[in-house]
Amino acid sequence: MSVILRQSTDLPVLTGNWSWVAITGTDIDLDPTRKLADLGERLETAFDSVRDDWWSLGYRLGQTPSARLAHMPTAASYNCDFGLMMAWIRLIAAVVATPRRILVVCDDPWVFRQLASLDGIEAGKPPTLFFRSLKAWIRGWLARGRLSFHVICAHLRLRPTKENAAQGGTTLLVYGHPGSDAKGKDAYFGTLMADMPRLRRLIHTDADVGLTINLAQDGRTAGLHAWGSLFFTPRLVFQRWLPSPGELDGPYTWILRRAVILENATAAPAANRWQMHCQERWLESQRPDMVIWPWENHPWERAMCRSAKHYGVTTRGYQHAVIGPQQFNPGPASNPDGLGSIPDRIICSGPAYRDQLLSWGIPAERLRIGGAFRISRFEGNYYDPCGPVFVATSSFRSITEQMLRAVNKARKPGRKFIIKIHPLYPLDIEETEDIRLTQYTIPEQQGISAVFYGTGTSGLEGLLAGVPTFRFRPDDRVAINVLPEGVTAYPVELNSLDEALDQAERPLPLDWSEIYAAVQPTVWQDELKT
Q: Which string of b and e fits 468-498 if b means at least 16 CB within 10 Å?
């Protein structure tokens, strides 16, 4: 056998020319020089190849109502790791087909069994399933119970904000964001509230209740929690993804079971169900003419489209965030009713994103460019070959930790780094003579020699600024690439950042007009019919 599969407590004694790979977070201490080469590139290539299969699975599973509460059937790369597990299976299957001698170490009981089902793998004793499943089951019940108590409190506190709602008209449905205020500014929709006095604003159920109360001081903002029924809250404890056994059959049966168990180990399906319940009751009672929200094609958004059609409400989605080739959920292929759960029109922030949605199957007549509220064109002298390297940490702690290890390996006399900590994921980093912290984003910088990032929009900002930009590619997971199609940052791995920085060359700046458009007031006025 060329591939041996073991858990970390059952490692064989290997002699001769063997390589190894540890997957799904398994921590082992083996000779690093024998680790499978180019693992980050292999894993990312495998991940890129699973998109269509994931979309097809999502479409099939989504025919069951309970699956419409879950994130896995939406092919949400950020919200679940099912695509990553598919990628691991494909990567190892490809290794089996080669004459290489590989040890695969995996402590995840479901992924282990999935790999063991592949031809050509010599598998040892699998990790136990019972205790992992029991822990997840208990955690899920506790999480849903806690959520039920939380939404009762949120409903009671936000019920007075219903007075700010109005019959008919146009409503912005937005997430709670500290950048929004009660003076006409919204973090997602800029100054539309101030520019269009008849607009109303509704705050999503995942928002902080105190923030929602503060925003409601404008007399035009309400908390969606207020429309929920207290009699419905006990049912949240039972809101889970409950597929039939036959739905989990097929080539990915074990990791599908894993996805169901892990989703049900959280309150996510119940939280989605509460959002759907509240928005359904709001639509029924308020009968708005139109509702628009920051669109990403998540479960509650698909339900919003279906409910709005039932009540004769026009829908608009605003493509506010970046979409990249590895962020699969905006594609309509996984929607169980296809375009039926896509907004009547999607207003895009720029040409690059309109083109991507078009290529993924959304008709041209349902797409329109309205401009970007969340990023403005910036100009300045950003590049200095002698300046520090700007490091943007990730929202994923494990990716950030590996990036910092890469930074330490790349330290040398005369090279300095400035590190911008992700504002929502703080991290303690000790400053040194050559490593400093900064509170300023790339548009606020002057004279940086390169940008090093893992996930998020910093890579796009670096390329727009005309600075050499390097995207970290870990070897144990995929750092989701959100750059527009055709836009690339140079990929680096743990040990290659130093050489990449030595050879860095200033790229040609991207053409802003091909990525983003300035906000088009006439488009927004026309689309919102205010």
A: bbbbbbbbbbbbbbbbbeebebebbbbebbb
User: Which region holds residue 445: left if phi is over 0, alpha if psi is between -120 and 50, else beta?
Assistant: beta
**Domain parsing of the chain, residue ranges:** 3-128, 150-226+266-376+519-528, 389-513
Backbone dihedral angles phi then psi of residue 43, each to the nearest 5 degrees: -65, -40
* Residues in Cβ contact with 39 at an 8 Å cutoff, skipping those fewer than 6 apart: 21, 475
Copy the structure tokens of residue 85: 């597990």
Distance CA 233, CA 81 (A): 29
pLDDT band at 294 (very low <50, low <70, confident <90, very high): very high
Which two three-digit tokens encode residue 461?
Answer: 């900002």
Residue-wise pLDDT for 79-133, tens only, equals 999 999 999 999 999 999 888 889 999 999 999 999 999 999 999 999 999 999 9
d(CA 206, CA 316): 20
Determine the topology of domain 150-226+266-376+519-528 in CATH.
Rossmann fold (3.40.50)
- Could you give the 3-state DSSP secondary structure of residue 374? coil
Residue 27 backbone phi and psi in degrees, to 5:
-105, 115
Three-state DSSP string of 177-212: CCCCCCCCCECCCECHHHHCCCCEEEECCCCCHHHH
Gap between the Cα atoms of 69 and 241, Å rounded = 7
Here the tokens at position 10 are 């059952």
Q: Cα 423 to chain center, whole Å? A: 16
Q: Given pLDDT bands bounded at 50, 70 and 90, which one contains residue 422? A: confident
417, amino acid identity: F
Asked if 321 contacts 296 with a C-beta cutoff of 8 angstroms, the reply is yes
pTM of the model: 0.94
Helix (H, G, I), strand (E, B) or coil at 458: helix
pLDDT at 6 over 90: yes
Residue 279 corresponds to which tokens in the numbers above?
Answer: 């928005």
The pLDDT, as a whole number, for residue 456 is 87
3-state secondary structure of 361: coil
SS3 (DSSP) at 346: strand
Tens-place pLDDT, residues 122-171: 999 999 999 999 999 999 999 999 999 999 999 999 999 999 999 999 99
Do 150-226+266-376+519-528 and 389-513 share a fold? yes
- Please give the CATH superfamily to which domain 389-513 belongs: Glycogen Phosphorylase B; (3.40.50.2000)
Nearest to 409 by CA among 313, 501, 290: 501
Judge whether 457 and 349 are in contact, CB under 8 Å: no
